[in-house]
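Mods, move this if it's the wrong board.
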Amino acid sequence: MSNIKLFQDKKIRSVWDEEKEQWYFSVVDVVAALTDSSDPKQYIKKMRARDPQLNANWGTICTPVQMTALDGKSRRIMASDIKGLFRLIQSIPSPKAEPFKLWLSQVGYERVLEIENPELAQERMKVLYEQKGYPKDWIDKRIRGIAIRQNLTDEWKKRGITEEKDYAILTAEISKATFGLTPTEYKEIKGLTKKNQNLRDHMTDLELIFTMLGERVTTEISEKEKPDTFSKSKSIAKRGGNVAGIAREQTEKELGRSIISSGNYLNSGDEADTEPENQLFDKH
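Not the wrong board. Structure tokens:
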């Protein structure tokens, strides 16, 4: 799943390949960042035309990788690893080339450190959330929620579920059972209109807590029952969410108010769209 990194003020989509243990970056985004071209796709065509060697090796330098496209939909787009990008940079006359090389090296180095010590990734996310203005106690819950979400998606992978659309379906089942709303409906209540706005980044403490409860219980049930079909996993997602839903309803009865809130963090720098949560592949 893709996340957004910033080189200077330019957004560059990237994906970490767990199997190959390397980053892949959107070639279109990199070219746009280095050239300030209004039409980076056309620039790439001209670049390949004037560099026959680059064009001949294009298939080895670039590869289609699943990322979130500019229209917000997930699809395979042309991407390159760090080694391939260094070759591309040779064909792009830009004063930003050297700073970009340093940036790439730093990105790769940070990831190596985070693989050796995952706590570094969490600390970096905490800093990013703090910079966006989130309270520290909220950040602690958010980071914990990311870890719980990762455990859940890892469990789903063990059950043969790997497609993002299937994750979305299962996530919607948990959400409906927990809150009576799908993530899409929940975003509407909070006034989140952009596709890249993460619902959880706009949840209150209690909303995060019940989200975590539904996902953790779902993980526990799945680990115990080891479902072998998507249908069974869907049923378990509903059951896990139902546990959180019952707890939510009881809490609302005690508090005399709804847990579901229209409040959001749009005034906390959300428009920067740095999406720190995606660095642990958190979605929905």
